[in-house]
Design goal:
Distance between the termini: 56 Å
Number of strands: 15
Strand order of the largest sheet: 6-5-4-3-2-1-15-14-13-12-11-10-9
Number of helices: 3
Structural class: mainly beta
Largest sheet: 13 strands, antiparallel
Radius of gyration: 19 Å
Low-confidence stretches: 1-12
Shape: globular
Mean pLDDT: 90
CATH topology: outer membrane lipoprotein receptor (LolB), chain A
Number of domains: 1
Strand content: over 45%
Helix content: under 10%
Length: 240
């Protein structure tokens, strides 16, 4: 038997997690477009007193299911491509006939995992719950707890702070299945990018080694029509 909504009771009251899902969706839309786009990503990683390691990528993405990550620097790795379809991820290396299957949680460089660059939206991967609110620097923030929908997701739990007035993300904590804090991330340097004010810098810090961190800078974002055929193994050789 189907029951209609009870008059006078809001959707949020009928479904306590509806508000959390709406907040998470709006926050994802601030971070990245929902339609096809291209963006350049520069990752600078620092460990202790070592010289920074810098790597550059071009990312083509469509929704949260299809992503291509092309390595553009350093020269020794130029031409390597990550292809993500749903939660399946492959690495293609020039002159190597067979792609290598990778996990989203495997490290790409520094503190950055494959999933941080290839599958960065949360809405499709996590069940959110609104667990509280905090005031930080005079601003009110929602605090969300995100639980992975399965073990193939990059992180099993995420604690996520989102500004109440705008749904803009402030910071996140990423946890393993056992509940161990793996790393933290702050969303910084909000600017116009791809037609919207977005965080253009992510700062990721290793939870066990605070002197190990990575800085992800986004620039030159543009909307692109990306047909599904682009995100196939056969099409990758056509990409420049």
């Amino acid at each position: 038997m189907l029951f209609s909504a009870v008059p006078g009771i809001s959707q949020a009251e009928e479904d306590p997690d509806a508000a959390a899902r709406a907040i998470l969706q709006k926050s994802d839309e601030i971070r990245f477009p929902v339609t096809g786009f291209e963006v350049a990503v520069r990752i600078r990683s620092i460990e202790g007193g070592d010289a920074p390691e810098v790597r550059e990528f071009k990312v083509l993405s469509k929704g949260n299911e299809n992503t291509i990550v092309l390595t553009t620097s350093p020269a020794s790795e130029r031409g390597q491509i990550l292809l993500m379809k749903a939660r399946d991820l492959w690495l293609f290396v020039p002159n190597v006939s067979q792609p290598v299957r990778l996990s989203l949680s495997q490290r790409l460089t520094g503190v950055v995992s494959n999933g941080d660059i290839a599958r960065a939206n949360f809405s499709g991967d996590y069940n959110p719950k609104l667990v509280g609110s905090e005031t930080i620097d005079g601003q009110a923030y929602h605090v969300l707890e995100l639980t992975a929908i399965d073990r193939a997701v990059t992180y099993q739990k995420v604690k996520y702070w989102v500004k109440q007035s705008s749904n803009a993300p402030l910071k996140a904590e990423f946890y393993s299945l056992s509940g161990r804090l793996l790393k933290t991330c702050s969303y910084e340097d909000y600017k116009q990018l791809g037609g919207k004010v977005r965080p253009t810098k992510l700062v990721m810090v290793d939870a066990l080694k605070e002197d190990t961190r990575s800085f992800m800078d986004y620039e030159d974002m543009k909307n692109r029509e990306l047909p599904d055929k682009v995100f196939t193994k056969e099409y990758l050789k056509k990409l420049e």
